[in-house]
Structures are given as structure tokens and as C-alpha cells.
User: Fold this.
Amino acid sequence: MNTNAMSMNARGQARRAANSRAMDAGARAGFVARGVIYLLVGVLALRIAFSDGGGKQADRGGAIAEIAEKPFGNVLLWVLGVALAGMALWRLSEALFGQVGPDGHKPSKRAMAAGRFLFYTFVSYSVLSYAAGDRSSGSGSSDQQTDDVTARVLQWTGGQWIVGIAGVAVICAGLWMAFRAVTRKYHKHLKMAEMTKKVRQAVDVTGVFGGTVRGAVFATAGGFAVAAAVQHEPGRAKGMDDTLRSFTETPAGPWLLVLIALGLAAFGLFSWANARWRRV
Assistant:
């Protein structure tokens, strides 16, 4: 068998794996895992709104620590980490072979899938490392990590521009998430015809509300990064936890954070709807 034939055979096997039931199950498990994390972050944010949160962080690290404290928590973390790995592999298959739908093979779609693959690979690794006993992995403060990275980059030549551009990119990503949610772009990815009227309404409530709030949180975090770049102060940049806490400093007080927390929890429920009705 020549090299060309072997390459085509390997690519064919990879494509079959990408379209397999195992990949389908991995993607759906990943959506369930994502939903769990967002629901827990929403619950932690509610605690912060009504108190100080009991010292817990309202971010992915706080959610992981919360799970670890529960009975059989370590087992749940292993399940969560493996599920997120399934999501990462599914995103990789989309990057290599394109997404479902007529425009799924566009370079922009495949590039976004590649970015999501890297993100979910990192999240899966951090959860599995924590489950394996590395308590410095996964549950670290997103605020401290953001401060450290921002401070390091600001020391580089052109560091202010890099941080500023990254902040603008996060703002744009957040606004795009909110726009997609408000315009219900997610409809094309879901099997809407298989839902009852009440289920469709519930999916739209969680999809629009949750997606808009998620986008707003990202855009706000991006704004803090831009402020850090302009003022050359690493402390101005905020991770998820500090970004959420900042909503309590508005004239609306803790009630705005309550709204944000409910939105993040709603996005968690929307992720579960994706696990059931997503076109994979």
C-alpha cells in the first residue's frame, strides 16, 4: 500500500470515528458537564449576592471545589473530566471535518471549533488533574491567575497593546455570544421540530436569557482587561469571580448579581437542552 493510500485510509477512519455513536455520546456528555459547571457557578454567585459566598469563588475553580466536597465528589470529578474530554474531541472533529449544516465547512467555523477544542482540552485536563490529587490544578483562583498573566504580559515590549487587543477580543466575543442568543441563532443547531411547544418555549427562555447574560459577563471581563492595559495596572483585570462580584458595586447592588447568577444557571439548563437536542 503506498503512502497516499495509507493517508486516505487513515483519514477515512478518522472521519468514521468523528461520525460514530461514541463521538455523539461524548459531545452530549460534554454539554451535560458544561451545564453542571454553569449551574454551580450560578449558585455560588447567588451566595455571594446575599453574603460573602462563604469564601467560595464563583468560577470554574469554585465549582470544582464545590463538587469535591460532596459525597463521591472525586468520582463525580472524574466523570466530569472525561465528559469534557468528549466535548474536546467532538470540537476537534468539527475543526478537522467541519460542522453539521450547509456552512459547517467554512474556515471561520473550523477555526472556532479548533479554539473550542483547545479550551475544553484545558478545562478537562484541569478537572482530571484535580481529581487525581493535584489540588493546585483546576480550583485555582481565576482572579489571581488573571492578575499574574496580565502583570507578566504588561512587562513585555508592546504588552499594553497585547492586553488591550485581548480585552477588545473578549468584549467582541461576549457581544457576539449575546447577539447569537438574542437572535436565537442556536435554533439551527437544535432539533426544534422534535420538541413540544412548552419545551421550545423553555429552551428559548434559557437560551436567550442565559446566552445574553453569559455574553455580558464575558464583555465585562474584557472591559476590565482594556482598563488594565490603558492604565497599566494588572489589578484592573479581573477573573470570573471578581467580575461577578463587581456587579454588586453598581447602583442596583446585589440584585444585579442575582439576575446574572440566574442567567448563568439558565445557561447551564440550556446546555442540558443541547445535550438532548443538539445536532451532532
Q: What stands out?
A: The chain is about 75% helix and 0% strand. The mean pLDDT is 87. The two ends are 33 Å apart (CA to CA). Residues 46 and 117 are 30 Å apart (CA to CA).
